[in-house]
Amino acid sequence: MSDVTIARTYRPGAWFGIFGDHAIVVLPPSEKDRVPQLWQLVDDGAGFDEVLDALISDGLRELPGFVLVSESDADTKVVVRGQATARFSTAEGEVSLAGSAATTWVERSMTGVTGLVIELGGEGEGPDLTVQNGLVRVSRIQEPPFQEVAEPDTAETPAPDRDHDGLTQAGTSDPAHVPPPGIPGQPPAPDVVARPVAKLVFSSGETVEVDRTVLVGRAPEAQRASSENPRLVTVPSPQQEISSTHLEVRAGSGVDHGSAVVTDLGSTNGTVLVQPGLAPEDLQPGITVQLIPGAIIDLGDGVTIQVTNP
Q1: Can you give 83-143 as a three-state secondary structure string?
Q2: Is the peptide bond before 181 cis (omega within 30 degrees of 0)?
Q3: Which phi and psi angles does 238 have, rounded to 5°?
Q4: Nearest to residue 270, comparing CAs of 175, 203, 188?
Q5: Burial of 168 by CB count in 10 Å (0-12 exposed, 13-18 middle, 19+ buried)?
Q6: pLDDT per residue over 37-59, tens digit each?
Q7: Are residues 251 and 197 in contact, defined by beta-carbon separation less than 8 angstroms?
Q8: What is the pLDDT of residues 106-136, one digit of tens each?
Q9: Element (H, E) at 16
Q10: CA pair distance 134, 302, nearest whole angstrom
Q11: Better pLDDT: 5 or 209
């Protein structure tokens, strides 16, 4: 496979989806304890054999289901177990693998794969979202062809192809720019919630309740928010490492209802998120991530935000 950026889409759901440059691992909700170790391996660029060894280290009996897809040059290896189905588009036609069709797993090696769909049961909620690398909760995954997507000639970017009955290609967007208002492809944020979903404790000592959208930056602008009447929190940045409107924290909607979520708004130097029990994660611009109480958001320039219960 070439070194171009891979655009993937996913539909939010209950399974854990772990995405790296060379591998995708999908685990059922019961396997949450396995996620940190596997995320570390995938994020470090581990290959097929190393990830598979980690998956089955405790024996298959303790692992009711999983999907592993590993890509190297023109070769694609896949293992499917349990209630999951993976479909691949290749030069020789479509290949479909159902994990429930075997008592152990179904394994296949292919060349010339141009697209994939992984279905995990259930319809999921909300629109399909885009992810490159990271950890998200999923019910369905789709990866478009492994080549650069040509820029459209018109001024308007066409909407993603939502025909989920075939191996269709999703549109891509520029993650470095998230135009106001709102975040494309994500559910609208509520203006105000009845009860705060979290409390933000800044390294300066300031505390802010998340009962509405909170914009954080050197000089946050209200029009960058995904809802009206946001709370603006200005933080110092002597080295100019923090962007004017760096990130947004708000009450989640859909599958994230009742929790706080964070979104990097295309900041220049990025945002690092450390969740309890998980490895540090570089937030992808425009991609919303659910926050766990105890999480630390690092904006750079010595500014951090701790997420606590309200």
Answers
A1: CCEEEEEECCEEEEEEHHHCCCCEEEEEECEEEEEEECCCCCCCCCEEECCEEEEEEEEEE
A2: yes
A3: -55, -35
A4: 175
A5: middle
A6: 999 899 888 889 999 999 988 88
A7: yes
A8: 899 998 888 899 998 766 566 778 877 888 8
A9: strand 8-19
A10: 24
A11: 209
Q: At what angle do helices 35-43 and 48-55 cross, to 10 degrees?
A: 170
pLDDT tens string 149-198: 334 444 444 444 433 333 433 333 333 333 334 444 455 555 667 789 99
187 in Cβ contact with 257 (< 8 Å): no
**Angle subtended at Cα 306 by Cα 192 and Cα 131, rounded to the nearest 5 degrees:** 75
Cα–Cα distance measured from residue 94 to residue 175, given in angstroms and rounded to the nearest whole number: 31
pLDDT of residue 220: 94
- Of residues 188 and 104, more confidence is placed in 104
CA distance 231 to 167: 42
Token representation of residue 284: 């992808």
The residues spanned by each domain of the chain are: 8-143, 199-308
Q: Work out the percent of the chain whose per-residue pLDDT is above 70.
A: 80
Non-local CB neighbours of 94 within 8 Å, separated by 6+ positions: 87, 88, 167
Q: Provide the CB-side half-sphere exposure for 276 (13 A, CA).
A: 8
Listing DSSP states for 226-289 in one string gives SSSSPEEEE---TTS-S-TT-EEEEEB-GGGBTSEEEEE-S-SS--EEE-TTS--EEPPTT--E
- C-alpha span between 14 and 16 (Å, rounded): 7
* CA-to-CA separations, 120 to 24, 71, 100, 104, in angstroms, rounded: 14, 20, 11, 17
pLDDT confidence of residue 218: 94
DSSP character at residue 82: S
SS3 306: strand
Class of 199-308 in CATH: mainly beta
- Give the per-residue pLDDT at 101: 64
Q: Write out the H or E segment, with its range, that includes residue 207.
A: strand 207-209
Residue 250 · residue 187 · CB < 8 Å = no
